[in-house]
Amino acid sequence: MSADERGTGGVRFGFVNSYVGLPERFYARVNPTRVAGPKLIKVNEGLAAALGLDARALESAAGVEVLAGNVVAEGSEPLAMAYAGHQFGHFVPQLGDGRANLLGEVVGVDGKRYDVQLKGAGRTPFSRGGDGRAALGPVLREYVVSEAMAALGVPTTRALAAVLTGEKVYREWSLPGAVLTRVAASHLRVGTFQYFAARGDVEGLRVLVSYALERHYPELVGSEKPARALLEGVVARSARLVAQWMLLGFVHGVMNTDNTSISGETIDYGPCAFMEAFDPEQVFSSIDANGRYGYGNQHHAMHWNLVRLAEALLPVLTLEEGSEAAAVEAAQGALAVFAGEFDGAYAAGMRRKLGLFTPQEGDVELAQDLLERMAEGRADFTGVFRGLAEVVAGGATAGSYGMTSKRAAVGGMFAVPERFEEWVERWRLRMAAEEGVSVEERVKVMRGASPAVIPRNHRVEAMIRAAVEREDFSLFEEMVRAVSRPFEEVEGLEGYRVPARAEEIVRATFCGT
Ligand code: AMP
Ligand code: MG
Fold first, then answer.
1. Which end of the chain has the lower number of beta carbons within 10 A, N or C?
2. What DSSP element (H or E) covers 115?
3. Model-level pTM greater than 0.85?
4. φ, ψ for residue 251 (rounded to 5)?
């Protein structure tokens, strides 16, 4: 082994860094801060392979030094990105990576460019009062939930690795510290644009627009009006993203503009959670007192964030359009894309969940009727939708009025099973109106749209407790396995499909930053 290989942990990332090539005011160059006792928790082998990285090298002692931030890998040019953001509606002109460190970018085997970032890597010029660190619990939560989202087919940042730092972090009490290696299409946020807009830095905005287009919307590069093209692209992707969240009962929890990605990925998993008992107003985050980011508000929150993006882009739109009035009109035109994209994605997703193949008027109302009945008795969101596939598989919708055990099982999740039975009759008639679709086809689509496994909150909490209290990562390992195949009913992992018992229900999640 050459001295060079030792010095970089023998880990070859093959960094090709573009962000560091942007003007210096876009970031601060800063190395991760050393930690006392790095210890590997996990390397994500599948993701490592997808990035063309050697998982064994990452797992080696030298690799762990890199993942903990103690050694700067060859080709890495560590930096903290500058950004601003609206936090719960209040604008903060400077946030930035206060505890994250962008090591560099790698090109995956798919030919796409990805950011590799350490989260919890120490203080940066953007840390304000913070310690730059992350606690173990939130690191494990982000690992599990982001991997679940990826397996569920939702655009998301991913977890490449997690390590312990051997140091304590102090929140309400002392907790083990950890570092998450996060992989994202990029870490550009709505707040990145707001940072330059707040400074009247129109040139910075223009540079950012073309960088974002090249990186995330290459098909739009060369367009005559790049800012408008970018805005439309972000609006469309973000609308579809939030529809996917809602179709899975996912609640992000902190949809601030600094946590809203330009690439259309789910980013910044904090007090996020999958809803169990259905309640359209469900809020988990202990810091979201007004329910601003509750389940049923998420599309409004996303739209609000995109209006902030349009505002930030206004100076560039004005240059493109020739006048401010025309720019406002262009912005409104781009924002108007949201409703159609969201409604379309939501309706298509609900049709798949209900096993419907040909769009018909009234489909969304049919789904809405089911959701209302679910809300009456707080039926389990994931359980009911997955159960519908089993009801179809059991033949109880094919024309017979007979009860099957599957149908009774789903009915049992409702406060009054008859409320479900009434709805099944409506649903059955709607399906009967579609000719030539076999039961098998329906079941296949339904099982692919409604997971059997989500990271249920009580299980996430139990997994975190075992890790924090006993350094026992066996539940974490098991949970990663369970959520990685969410549409299958894997033997030995039955427990991951069962809702919390009354005494297990988790009512609030905490940022724990
Ligand atoms: P978040 O709520 O995690 O999205 O973070 C909001 C802002 O606070 C970002 O600028 C973060 O970098 C910063 N931040 C969060 N936690 C810490 C911390 N422990 N130390 C320094 N900055 C932090
Ligand atoms: Mg954030």
1. N
2. strand 113-119
3. yes
4. -120, 115
